[in-house]
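Re: your question about DNA-binding beta-propeller fold protein YncE

S., sorry for the slow reply, the queue was backed up all week. Below is exactly what I fed in.
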Amino acid sequence: MTQSVRAGRESDLLAVVSQSSATVSFFDAANDTYIGGVDVLAEPHELCFDARRRLLWCASTYHSGYYHANSGRRSELTVIDPDTRRVVEVVDLAPEHGPHGLALDAERGLLYVSVEGSAERPGGVVVVDAGTRRPIGRIDTDAPGPHWFVISPDGAAGYASNKEAPFVSVVDLEKGTLTAKVEVPGSEGLAVSPDGTRVFVAAPYGSFAAGAEPPSPGIRVIDAAAAAVTDVLPVDDVVFPVHVTSTGKVLAGELRMATDPGSKLGRQSPGRLTVFSAVSGDRLGQAEVGRFPLTITSSPDGALGYVACVTSSTVDIIDLESMQRLSRLDIVKRGEPGAHGLAYIPRAR
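Result:
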């Protein structure tokens, strides 16, 4: 099984952010061999690969720390050539700040970047021309901290999760306007089904602050046409990352806490990858992963899932048919936290 699911991946790459050491590491996707890394600006978070231009975008979100516990927000994106493993350019989005979620409309050559708000205006999405690598627009989301951002397969609609705001922002990408607010109790990761009819959103927001008991965790299913939640996929623990494969599997990373909280992010047990059908909502399987799963991606054929776990600073590679872990990558770090953003990079054709 391991050999068959790995076949044909020679010269494909997996790129992984190390948040604490400010690097992007590259691994051979066929055998998990480390082949090199690139230094980037402090606090890199998410990655996005532009296959047409063979460029990798990396968002640096804060000078240090993380959401609501940082020393100041950055404003830069780093553009990397993954084949030569060198920095091509650093794009400064100032006065915008706190770039995090990255979504590419490959057909139109547009990169969408979620940015945090300020006293002067709410958070929003910056539109970047992927060819010139320059900002060309902004769409307000009417929330202070849009974090993850995804777009529909046809490039017409975008969806921003908002940690504290009690809604998902829906934007018309052609008109550049906010069109709806779908009520959810704060949200984390989100993903769109391959046919664009449903959006899967992790809610509630994962807060580590003491206080009232949060709503029950689950994956809220939004009907895209109705802009309303129509179902909830049940999970046991709070979910941060959500990803949908090309084959229609919903991958959710559950954070599992130990009984006695310790660090700023609490004391964690091994996390869990839970897989659902994007069509039926049926649970298809589960696999144990590292501590605090924070980003998930998959291979283009939907056979392999990759789960970056920030506290253990590991990436688990999961066969999504057998739900067996094939390998675990240890991501070099200096301090905490560690592994974060991911991108699968097919070899040049």
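The domain at 12-207+215-236+334-345 is CATH 2.130.10.10 (Methylamine Dehydrogenase; Chain H). DSSP finds one helix and 30 strands in the chain.

Happy to talk it through on Thursday.
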